[in-house]
């Protein structure tokens, strides 16, 4: 049985020393406003995985009160992925979009792709990472926020 998963996330930006996206540290003049490390891509990926498995959303599994600014989203992903695999889901491909106006992500895309593939234990050719800007419009375009969307295809026992 084929299963589609889809997830989105958004975090506000603040002045800072770096962002973490897809488990990769991106040195820059911004930080994420977040209860965790603010990894907007991994949060969207977690929701996509949970969606494919019919397991709800990230807030149900990792409530804000249980997460601190030091929380590594990689650990949340590993736990969510474990639950999803226990539910009988096998991943196909993962397609990621990051919306960011104020930090150019093009040079980071290969590292993010490699990291996401490694975290999911799937070949890099099954992962795609896109980075988009927002034409100066809205919270992303004005540099107040970043967002991510992830779609994936899986099979379920
Ligand atoms: Mg988030």
Describe this structure in words.
The chain is an alpha+beta fold and 157 residues long. Helices cover 31% and strands 35% of the residues. The protein has five helices and seven strands. The protein has a five-stranded mixed β-sheet. β2 (18-21) and β3 form a beta hairpin. It is globular, with a radius of gyration of 15 Å. The model has no long low-confidence stretch (mean pLDDT 96). The structure holds magnesium ion (MG). Residues 9, 11, 40, 43 line the site of magnesium ion. Magnesium ion (MG) is lined by residues 9, 11, 40, 43.
The distinct ligands, each listed once, are: magnesium ion
Low-confidence stretches: none
Strand order of the largest sheet: 4-1-7-5-6
Global outline: globular
Number of extended strands: 7
- What's the helix count? 5
Topology at a glance:
Blueprint: E1 2-15, E2 18-21, E3 24-27, E4 30-33, H1 40-53, H2 58-61, H3 73-86, E5 89-99, H4 109-120, E6 127-132, H5 138-141, E7 145-156
Parallel strand pairs: 5-6
Antiparallel strand pairs: 1-4, 1-7, 2-3, 5-7
Helix pairs in contact: 1-3
Bound molecules: magnesium ion (MG).
């Amino acid at each position: 049985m084929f299963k589609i998963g889809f997830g989105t996330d958004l975090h506000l930006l603040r002045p800072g020393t770096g962002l973490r996206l897809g488990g990769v540290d991106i040195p820059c003049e911004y930080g994420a406003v977040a209860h965790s490390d603010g990894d907007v891509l991994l949060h969207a990926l977690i929701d996509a995985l949970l969606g494919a498995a019919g397991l709800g959303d990230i807030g149900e599994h990792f409530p804000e009160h249980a997460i601190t600014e030091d929380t590594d989203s990689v650990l949340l992903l590993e736990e969510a992925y474990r639950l999803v695999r226990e539910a009988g889901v096998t991943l196909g491909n993962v397609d990621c979009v990051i919306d960011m106006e104020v930090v150019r992500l093009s040079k980071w895309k290969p590292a993010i792709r490699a990291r996401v593939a490694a975290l999911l234990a799937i070949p890099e050719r099954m992962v795609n990472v896109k980075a988009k800007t927002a034409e100066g419009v809205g919270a992303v375009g004005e540099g107040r926020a970043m967002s991510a969307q992830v779609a994936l295809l899986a099979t379920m026992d």
